[in-house]
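Onboarding guide, step 5: your first structure request.
Type a short instruction followed by the sequence, for example:

Predict the 3D structure of this protein.
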Amino acid sequence: MIVIDTERVAPKERFSYWVDTIGADFFPIDAEEIEGSDAPFTGQIEASLIGDVTVTRHVASPYKLKRTPRSISRAEKNFVTVGIPYSSAPVIQSFGDSQLVARRGDVIVYDIDSAHDVWGPDSSSELSVFVPRERLENYLGRVPRFSPRYLRPNDPLTTMLRALGHSLYQLRPGDLRQEGSLSDVAAHLVSIAYGLHPEADQTIGRSLAEARVLQAKLFIQAHCSDPRLDVKMVARHIGISVRRLQSLFEREGASASRCISEARMARAHDLIVRRHDLSVQEIAWASGFYSLSTFYRSFAEAFGSSPARYRDGSEPKG
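The system replies with structure tokens like these:
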């Protein structure tokens, strides 16, 4: 994993360090700070290579990033980027005369070698997925430059791409099978964003099925604290039947209901360990359990102990 962090850099040198390091480790850019804040610039990037796809998480103070013809001529990178904003503040992205305003929930797909500017009025947080151009050209043919695609939250492809980005970011290194599978999903979903028909190749159908499961898992993680969450709610959210959802999970040797239970247990475990100010009953409710007895039984099955005893064992000593 590559990590760029301005924390240990002298405040006056942070921005130039940020720009130079991005240029050295990723791609050359021109950039300028946005006036209006007396606080020193801060920024952090985490980056991982998953198969032949790069995923980054970018958090920074307001600044304007410019991928100009001059910076592009210094190094063409041949990637198409999926930008997934996570901050509530708008992110403005301009491509020549075209300007897009992206907010949390949107997705922008664009060619990293197309001249563009990116800026926003506030600190930004974004997940980005970089897919090699040649992977897309296998399906779409030779394209001089891919034009930007702006996907709104209600587009099914948007939620698939967001779920993919989240899964890539969370993936632990060393899972080669999963790395190859997710990099294929990335190439196929971005190709669909540029007009590839989902039935053009049977491998694309498999990627769409996997993307549906990623969607379901992301929705489950986000809503596992809701006691009303069940398989029907998950299926309804991603727009397929319960039977179809169950069959997609079964192809991976899993089940949607078990995924819900595991997400609730993971949340309960996190709260038991971290939130000593909460009672066991409060943790049960915060983890999506109507019944305290069901919570006790489920916790014991998962961790071999009652919640209270487990907490006593996890208390920091000394």
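Each response can be followed by summary notes, for example: The mean pLDDT is 91.
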